[in-house]
Amino acid sequence: MTRGAPGPAARASTMSVARANVLALIWLPISGVAAATPYAVLWGGGRLAGLAAALPPLPLGLALMAAGILIHELLHAAGFLLFGRAQRDQVRIGFQRRTLTPFASCRAPVTAAAYRASALLPAAVLGGIPLLAAWITGSAALLLFGWVMLALAGGDVAAVWAMRAVPGPTLVLDHPELVGCRSVEAPGATATR
Fold first, then answer.
1. Residues of the chain below pLDDT 70
2. Are 191 and 85 in contact (CB under 8 A)?
3. CB atoms within 10 A of CB 6
């Protein structure tokens, strides 16, 4: 979610890609504990030992991962359209070759609250919903999928962390090179509504 068009005079709430990657690595075990603890409490810690059996064969696992990543970016785009009320031509999905990362961005200013909701939507849908289902049903496969999708949202968590001090109604734009956003301060800037 870090690729946006340059905009008016702005104050950045960002971090480097390297720092975001470090935070994403820190997020990995945190998301694992957040996923596994309720499961272990509800279904017993012994069931966690069987997670390896829930791993799909490698080709299927890679296909699921690729589909999950594509859906992840589509959910960011949907968030910009729904929460940010952006127009379809203002939202872009792409792949940055330099960092080997897919991205979704919005060229129009949106509120910080809409940006946060768009950033965290994939974590909630692809991570949270399968985890809730795993906790309810005891499915190790759903637990594993939910945790992986939650863990993959580490960069989004870093972006939201970078802008933690930005008030919800503030208009923001994606930063073109860093993780996070820029608060739009130019007169006449309006959120897409």
1. 1-10, 185-193
2. yes
3. 11
Report pLDDT digits (tens) over 136-156: 999 999 999 999 999 999 999
Q: What is the dihedral of CA 153, 178, 21, 162, to 10 degrees?
A: -70
89 alpha-carbon distance from chain centroid: 21
pTM score = 0.86
- Look up residue 50 and give its amino acid: G
- Overall size of the chain counted in residues: 193
- The DSSP output letter for 170 is S
The beta-carbon contacts of 87-96 under 8 Å, at least 24 apart in sequence, are 87/192, 90/192, 92/3, 94/3, 96/3
Which positions ≥6 away from 143 have C-beta within 8 Å? 35, 36, 39, 51, 54, 130, 131, 134, 135
Distance CA 2, CA 17 (A): 9
DSSP helix, strand, coil percent of the chain (3-state; round to 5): 60, 15, 25
User: Phi, psi (5° rounding) for residue 176?
Assistant: -70, -25
Q: Rounded distance, CA 23 to CA 29, Å? A: 11
